[in-house]
Amino acid sequence: MAALTQADVDRWLDADDYHRADVADFLRWATRRRLVSKVVVHRRRGPELNLTLSEDARWLLLDRCLHDDDIPDDIRAAGTLVLLYGLQLSRIVELTNSHLHRRHVAGGEETIGGVSVSLTGPEITVPPSLAAILTRLPVRGPHPRTRPLIGGDTPGWLFPGFTATGHLNAATMSKHMKAYGIPTRSARNAALIALAGELPISLVSDLFDLSISTAMNWARRAGRDWNAYLAATHNERSATAHLP
């Protein structure tokens, strides 16, 4: 493994029909442990984006996730995070209690309205209705899934499952969401297009852990002109600089 090169990886993947996502996960794990040099799994050009979910349909689904008590809390939480922030399910299922930051008022009493979530970027303060759902996780059912297959300390998963890592598999979560009428891929695409059309590209990149090029691509999907954004930013800064 120490002699593995990028060319080796590319030839190996082209030779057979391997699951690239699984290979990429393994190589990232091996790289973190310095078992291999820095190599990556290049993505093949996929099909066109699924843009079948309209903005009105997105908001209707979001309302269901936030207020429909017939949907389990874990499905409601994951669905809201996808529909509102365009987060990847693979990141959502890795959330733990340490990713939730609760605000406290005088006297030490906890306020549900003051909850923020952090992944790798800045904290995102969530609406009170979503905060209430997140603070009820993990879901306590007749067969709680709280321990990984491999022993050791658990980090307090919000979405525990029977996997080697201890958290629910993203594909399994997607299947659960679809059973309640929440299409994961089109929901995330609709959310990212809406966000990229309303927020500065740099902010979309920082908040949602996207590369600047990916954020720019989403902005183009939303019909935004990057040069117009730069011009508007320059004009705003110039106006601010001339304020008395």
Explain this structure to me?
About 50% of the residues lie in helices and about 5% in strands. By secondary structure, the protein is mainly α. The protein has a domain at about 1-45. Strands 1-2-3 form a 3-stranded antiparallel sheet. The longest helix has 16 residues, at about 225-240. The relative contact order is 0.11.
The biggest sheet, with number of strands, parallel, antiparallel or mixed sense and barrel status, is:
3 strands, antiparallel
* β-strand amount: 5-15%
Q: Give the SSE string.
A: HHHHHEEEHHHHHH
Number of helices: 11
Stretches where pLDDT is under 50 for at least 5 consecutive residues are 142-152
Q: What is the radius of gyration computed over CA atoms, rounded to a whole number of angstroms?
A: 21 Å
Number of strands: 3
Write down the overall mean pLDDT. 78
Structural class: mainly alpha
Termini gap: 63 Å
Strand arrangement within the widest β-sheet reads 1-2-3
Shape: globular
Estimate percent helicity: 40-55%
Features of this protein?
244 residues, mainly alpha, globular
Gist?
This protein has 244 residues and is mainly α.
Draw up the topology in text:
Blueprint: H1 6-15, H2 20-32, H3 55-67, H4 73-85, H5 89-92, E1 100-104, E2 110-117, E3 124-125, H6 128-134, H7 170-179, H8 184-198, H9 201-207, H10 212-221, H11 226-241
Antiparallel strand pairs: 1-2, 2-3
Helix pairs in contact: 3-4, 4-8, 8-10, 9-10
